[in-house]
Amino acid sequence: MYKVFLFFAIVAAAAGLGINCRGSSYCRDGSDIQKIKSYMDGLIDENREYNSGENIVCYRAGENVASGYCLFLQDNKTPVKGGQIFSLLNALIDHGCKGCGSVPVDWENSNDPSVNGILTVNYVGATGCEGLC
Fold first, then answer.
1. Which one, of 28, 8, 11, 33, lies nearest residue 119 by Cα?
2. Of 28, 48, 107, 109, which is most buried with the most CB atoms under 10 A?
3. Which domain of life is it from (predicted)?
């Protein structure tokens, strides 16, 4: 019985993290997601479509610094509209995430990011933009 449980636990872990508050160790201050949201609130075009790897919102970690925090999609098979992205970011906040984190694009139906990718807030080496990208 124990071996069967252990097998399913390993398979579940391999399927992906699902909604989570993980990210770079630079995400420790705990205000990154709220700052990302403030750049989007009332400004994001709800009908604009975003693709995997495209930065949606970013802010730099400091003056004259290229690195910072970004909101972006990973491994999504189809474009995701801005309105859904804003809802997903709110789901991440409702989950208790403050610094960084990820939420599967189809999280309401499946907590498995392999279904249609994942929306992520994380520290990046080069933001490429400030505010909405």
1. 33
2. 107
3. Eukaryota
Q: Is the pTM of this model over 0.90?
A: no
17-132 maps to CATH 3.30.430.10: yes
- Alpha carbon distance 54, 52 (integer Å): 6
Domain map (residue ranges) of the chain: 17-132
φ/ψ of residue 70, rounded to 5:
-135, 155
In DSSP notation, 53-118 reads T-EEEEEESSTT---EEEEEEES-SS-EEHHHHHHHHHHHHHTT-SS-EEEETTTTT---TTTT-E
Residues 6 or more apart whose CB falls under 8 angstroms from that of 28 comprise: 99
Count Cβ atoms below 10 Å from residue 59 Cβ, excluding itself: 17
| Ordered per-residue pLDDT tens for the chain, 133 residues | 444 333 333 333 434 689 999 999 988 767 789 999 999 998 999 999 999 999 999 999 888 889 999 999 999 999 999 999 999 999 999 999 999 999 999 998 888 998 899 999 999 999 999 999 9
